[in-house]
Amino acid sequence: MKGWIFAGSLALLLPAAVAADFVGHGGFVKSVATSPDGRHALTASFDYTVMYWRVPAGERLGRFDGHEGGVNAVAFLPDGSGALSAADDGTVILWSLPDGVVRHRFTGHQGKVAAVAVSPDGGLAASAAWDGTVRLWDLAGLSLLRTLEGHEGNVNSVAFAPDGATLASGGYDSTVRLWRVSDGTPLLTLTGHDFSANSVRFTPDGSSLLSGSVDETVRVWDIASGEERDQWTGHTGSVFAVAVSPNGKLAASGGLDQLVRIWHLPTGKLVHELAGHKGPVWSLDFTPDGRLLLSAGADDVVKVWDVEFGEAVGPATETAAALDARAAVAQLNGDAGRGARLFRKCRACHSITADGGNKAGPTLYGIFGRSAGSVRGYPYSEALAQSGLVWTEETFDRLFALGPDTYTPGSKMPLQSMPNAEDRAALIAYLKEVTASD
């Protein structure tokens, strides 16, 4: 009963093993955000979806489809009644919660929207895009308020100061820029990073700003003077994400080296180094009480960490998709071999049994001989629904040989291919066996 052993605050909050990895996305999880009350989280993924979860249990409560490209960022409204998401399709969507209905779609960016943030009063949203601009949106009037220009190249991150008066943005030009929200006036340009600034976050008192960069550093900036106050090193590879605890005492960083680091913000001392992800860490967020840290990764998973003790909270539970695969393996009398092993990367998105239903992708049950885009209840892209494809051994082989971007251009399927013909044959043979309908 490990969750009860500790005398710390977490033991009063959680019984043993109630937290789990958030598993269900079929691609990189690019962003994670916790709700203002700490009870829920949103995730954004390369699989084109936004998912809604219960914290800390990792129970998926909803999957929201609306973007026509990978989703890069999510942010809650301050009252928890809605959320925003930003995607490769150049749009920002305003969702209602918990039903996931699209309230409005903001358009205008001429490139991938990499980040989104909401002002503390909930009146404005800011989006950063690879068209080189930051845009401010009026959430009440559902309109563009102003466009901020100044970065030379892609803009990767954006954050409001706690008082809502200042906005920070980080860009490919290696600069962090501060803007006055009321009229869009540039205030300061913070220079020092050697390469792209990927993530920016203010401290709760608004006196400092953290930035993470491709140059493998986290830097702490003094907002009043614009001077660099501290520089933290230790990551081996790009730093993709930074976060600050609600009390301002701790900060977290994550990146290409698959590690999450927790720092004592006033001194820059490393407190914990957390290993567990099997791919780069793209996003971090503390819960409002500061006790937990959520990390999102390229391994398609969100992990939950106990901040005080620096370890994962509770074991991950076996997902429905994993149970599907285990049942199929049992049908094949033990070791299902090469095809079953290859299918492991697909099972987070697709069920293969009659009662599995649609997940991030449509069910594969009865797939052979079925027209593409024909499963009821799944929001297919228009490109796939009108493709005229019928799924056979030959079309599956072509799909994985060429990749969805070439064989089914415009579809929602994540970009992936399988160049080895023997691997393709093994996977197809496995799928034919385990997805056969009565």
Overview of the structural elements:
- The protein has helices at 2-5, 9-13, 320-331, 338-343, 382-385, 393-402, 404-407, 421-434; strands spanning 22-23, 29-34, 40-45, 49-54, 59-65, 71-76, 82-87, 92-96, 102-106, 113-118, 124-129, 133-138, 143-149, 155-160, 166-171, 176-180, 186-190, 197-202, 208-213, 218-222, 228-232, 239-244, 250-255, 259-264, 269-275, 281-286, 292-297, 301-306, 311-312.
- Residues 1-17 and 315-336 have low confidence and may be disordered.
- The protein is built from eight helices and 29 strands.
- The radius of gyration is 22 Å and the shape is globular.
- Strands 1, 26, 27, 28 and 29 form a five-stranded antiparallel sheet that branches. Strands 2-3-4-5 form a four-stranded antiparallel sheet, with no helix packed on it. The protein has a four-stranded antiparallel sheet with strand order 6-7-8-9, with no helix packed on it.
- With 438 residues, the protein is mostly beta strands.
- The longest helix has 14 residues, at 421-434.
- Helix 6 (393-402) packs across helix 8.
- The two termini are 44 Å apart.
User: What's the β-strand tally?
Assistant: 29
Global mean pLDDT: 87
User: Structural class of the secondary structure composition?
Assistant: mainly beta
How many helices in DSSP terms? 8
Helix coverage percent = 10-25%
Shape: globular
